[in-house]
Amino acid sequence: MSLVFDTKEKKLMLAAIDLAKKNHEDKEDSDYLDLVEIENEVMLENIFLSRKQISHIETITGPLLDFPEEYEQMDIYDLETKLLDYVELP
Hints:
Blueprint: E1 2-3, H1 7-22, H2 30-42, E2 47-48, H3 51-60, H4 73-87
Antiparallel strand pairs: 1-2
């Protein structure tokens, strides 16, 4: 599924992925490798992600709320809503 995200949304997704990667000790773990794959895709202009990958991003954006000085909370909520909407598409 081709998805459209603006620069701000991509930055939030990459920040969430970076934070999640820092919490993984095993760099060979399949979850870590999934994060790397998603990160590579998010950096592209046209993003192609599976529902599982979109759902994964949606679940890891929450910790960004712990950094209100760096990230606007409404932007995070808006991104989570958009990701959830993509996951729930028929």
